[in-house]
């Protein structure tokens, strides 16, 4: 099911509450760099995030180098940002704090 794109005001408000997330240069995705204590912590985060992504049927574009995970979220089906990106971003912030 494709969700509607967020309007710019709703997006701005949501981003204020999502610590560390910012609008990417393309304006159609949000991004955050997570830096962990070591690779093991980074990979544990990715495992949790991957399970949450599967549950939401909404998947991150991400890369991992050692203890750093760079994440870009967008809704490819909608060519932009939807509620699903905010949900996954919030879940990732929770997992990064465990
Ligand atoms: C067919 C399947 O439901 C879709 O391709 C889903 C899968 N995961 C997805 N993930 C993301 N980030 N955006 C999508 O549009 C998307 N679509």
TrEMBL record:
<keyword id="KW-0456">Lyase</keyword>
<comment type="similarity">
    <text>Belongs to the pterin-4-alpha-carbinolamine dehydratase family.</text>
</comment>
<dbReference type="Pfam" id="PF01329">
    <property type="entry name" value="Pterin_4a"/>
</dbReference>
<protein>
    <recommendedName>
        <fullName>Putative pterin-4-alpha-carbinolamine dehydratase</fullName>
        <ecNumber>4.2.1.96</ecNumber>
    </recommendedName>
</protein>
<dbReference type="InterPro" id="IPR001533">
    <property type="entry name" value="Pterin_deHydtase"/>
</dbReference>
<dbReference type="GO" id="GO:0008124">
    <property type="term" value="F:4-alpha-hydroxytetrahydrobiopterin dehydratase activity"/>
</dbReference>
<dbReference type="InterPro" id="IPR036428">
    <property type="entry name" value="PCD_sf"/>
</dbReference>
């Amino acid at each position: 099911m494709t969700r509607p794109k967020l309007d710019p005001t709703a997006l701005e408000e949501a981003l204020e509450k999502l610590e560390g997330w910012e609008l990417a240069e393309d304006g159609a995705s949000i991004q955050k760099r997570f830096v962990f204590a070591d690779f093991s912590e980074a990979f544990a985060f990715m495992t949790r995030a991957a399970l949450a992504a599967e549950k939401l049927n909404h998947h991150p574009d991400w890369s991992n180098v050692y203890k750093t995970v760079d994440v870009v979220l967008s809704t490819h089906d909608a060519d932009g940002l939807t509620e699903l990106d905010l949900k996954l971003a919030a879940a990732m912030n929770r997992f990064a704090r465990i």
